[in-house]
Design a protein that fits this description.
Elements lengths: L1 H5 L3 E5 L1 H5 L3 H11 L3 E3 L25 H9 L2 E5 L5 H4 L2 H5 L3 E6 L13 E4 L2 H12 L8 H13 L13 H11 L5 E4 L3 H9 L8 E3 L9 H11 L5 E6 H4 L3 H9 L5 E6 L2 H9 L12 H4 L3 H7 L3 E5 L5 H15 L3 E6 L23
Length: 369
């Protein structure tokens, strides 16, 4: 507490351990009592409401926000709770560490110092630690930190990325804009690996713990449908959405049959950048330099027909104006048929995400305001 209360620009970093420790409410109580901004890792997404005034985004070199990286670089103290300091979060360590003071709290002792030595390491589950913090705060004078929280809010409002693209081919940020608007905070999302996970981390919003299920840095292609089956089976009344890519989808067919057999309704949102089609194109011996002249139907998979072969519904979307209506249709169709329903959205095959090796040099994929 001495380290935290004397810091001028502190951040709380909440990882998956806060989710596992069922400590979301305690985290919010501590943050509000201290008036300290909260960042989350990808595995902690949803443990702190993204519409909360103290939400400070996700720092990282992949699943991150531009304004969150900027806020982290201006911070002088980080209290990390149940976070592993994965390399997609930290990027280059000298930049990430800087002159900041780090306190690392984790229930697993071997996590402390595994990536770098913190200034203070504490072995504890997130819940008991936050309980102890609240008790200690009752005896302390707490600075208001209005200047720092105002600065973080300013970064959030100004260092934004464009989402409302109206161009064809569809840009990925537009897809997540529509997803954010179509589904409410009680929806359960599952997503795995690839560009669509990175785009999801950058643009998709989460508000409640365990409502954003992600496999992290593991590489299980085809994880999404089994994960959706698991959530839907555990919570029969929940609305579940699987965010997938066209390459990952080829590994999902058998699990799709299971979902159809057991009448488990959920929505599948596919971001199709035709990567699978390009792989098949290469396998046929076509010159990759001519990829723009090769049509998706020749080398890709007709995913809508795959869905229909299992008695499931599907639509392909090629224009931004079609996304909202197709998502609304899929929600109703899933409930009507009690089967998975696909919305396949054809996105720009040349599109990339904002990436880099260090958090102070992330290259934006498009001009930003």
């Amino acid at each position: 507490m001495d380290l935290l209360l004397t810091a001028e620009r502190p951040l709380i970093l909440a990882g998956g351990g806060v989710v596992l420790g069922e400590a979301s409410a305690l985290l919010t109580a501590v943050a509000e009592r201290l008036n300290v901004p909260v960042q989350v890792t990808l595995m902690g997404k949803g443990v702190f409401r993204e519409d909360h005034p103290l939400f400070a985004g996700i720092t990282g070199i992949q699943t991150s926000q531009r304004w969150a990286n900027a806020a982290f670089l201006e911070s002088d103290f980080v209290l990390a709770l149940g976070a592993r300091f994965g390399d997609r979060h930290t990027g280059e360590l000298p930049v990430y560490r800087g002159d900041r003071t780090f306190v690392h709290v984790d229930i697993e002792p071997t996590q402390l110092g595994r990536v770098f030595g913190p200034d203070l390491g504490i072995v504890s589950d997130a819940g008991p630690f936050l309980d102890a913090v609240l008790a200690e705060l009752a005896t302390r004078d707490i600075p208001d930190r209005v200047e720092w929280t105002t600065r973080v809010a300013e970064l959030r409002q100004t260092l934004t990325r464009v989402e409302d693209y109206d161009t064809v081919p569809i840009q990925a940020p537009r897809v997540f804009k529509e997803v954010n608007e179509q589904f409410d905070e009680h929806t359960y999302f599952v997503t795995a690996i690839g560009l669509y996970q990175i785009w999801s981390g950058q643009f998709q919003r989460a508000y409640l713990p365990r409502h954003y299920q992600v496999c992290g840095q593991a590489g299980p292609l085809g994880w999404e449908i089994p994960a959706a089956i698991g959530v839907r089976s555990a919570l029969p009344d929940a609305e579940v959405v699987a965010i997938v890519g066209d390459y990952s989808f080829q590994f999902l067919v058998e699990e799709l049959a299971v979902a159809a057999q057991y009448n488990l309704p959920f929505v599948i949102v596919m971001l199709n950048n035709e990567y699978l089609g390009l792989i098949r194109q290469a396998e046929t011996g076509y010159d990759m330099n001519f990829q723009v002249d090769i049509h998706y139907d020749e080398f890709g998979t007709d995913n809508v027909k795959v869905m229909e072969s299992y008695g499931c519904g599907g639509r392909r979307v090629t224009r931004p104006a079609e996304i909202a209506e197709s998502l609304a249709w899929a929600r109703k169709e899933a409930q009507r048929t009690s089967r998975p329903v696909l919305v396949e959205i054809m996105v720009d095959r040349e599109a990339i995400a904002a990436l880099r090796a260090a958090i102070d040099a992330v290259t934006e994929f498009q001009p930003v305001p």
